[in-house]
Amino acid sequence: MAEPGGLFDAMHRKEPAEPQTRERGGFDRATWLALGLGGALAGLCLAVPKLRFALSYLTILIHELGHAAVGWLFGYPSIPAFDFTYGGGITTAQARSRLLLGVAYGLFAALAAASGKDRRKFVATLVGLGLFIACAHTRAHQAIILFMGHGAELVMAGVFLYRAMSGSTVVHEVERSLYAMCGFFIVMSDIAFAYRLWASPAERAAYGAAKGGGHWMDFSQLARQLGLSLPTVALLFLLCCLAPGALSVVAHHGFGRRV
Q1: What is the DSSP letter of 20?
Q2: What end-to-end distance do the CA atoms of the chain give, in Å?
Q3: In which domain, by residue range, is 126 found?
Q4: Residue stretches of the chain with pLDDT short of 70
Q5: What is the pLDDT of residues 127-174, one digit of tens each?
Q6: 12-36 per-residue burial string, b: 16 or more CB within 10 A, e: under 16
Q7: Are 151 and 203 within one domain?
Q8: Beta strands in the chain, from DSSP E residues, in sequence order
């Protein structure tokens, strides 16, 4: 027998509300708020010298880890560090190790084996292996290692912006604004750096004199290796700075979560 009031309760019981969803890859109010707040915070950090100095260490860390990671991939044991003599960072690379290079080939073999019957993954692995061989046994890998300091900054900026847009892996919504701040800060800093290096002879002179002189900075060496002028390399990098924002939007539309 039903308990007193049971029928009344059943008639007036409300079903739990369906969780609100938005279309994958959409830009709702929360997304625009996160991007807007993050962009404003990034601009503030760039405008205030002490904040810019503090946050620049994130960029330095990513930069040197980029050099080191790609160096290890091509067989050079590399140790990233902060440069307490001249400022910024420095990555020390040792002589090339055939053992490490063999490990890289082993990783490609493992990827090929893991692809199983997936033809597309197998073909993609073979293409990647072909590109790796073409770079690892020519001077191209040296240029890639040099570029992937600043290149890693752009990669991580894209990851930060994607997480800000999609909310991927965040625990609290405030994290989206922090991701946006970091992503915008890196991109804005790199755009300003590339523009100055392209447009200002004085900036190029200072860049060449950095680290004790000798034109040892990444883009100076890269320009020599590629047979290009430093302004041309700076202009190409300036164009690359557009990639994080564009690719993060594409990734968001393709893989953004439903919330």
Answers
A1: P
A2: 42
A3: 97-138
A4: 1-25, 255-259
A5: 999 999 999 999 999 999 999 999 999 999 999 999 999 887 788 888
A6: eeeeeeeeeeeeebeeeeebeebbe
A7: yes
A8: 78-82, 89-93
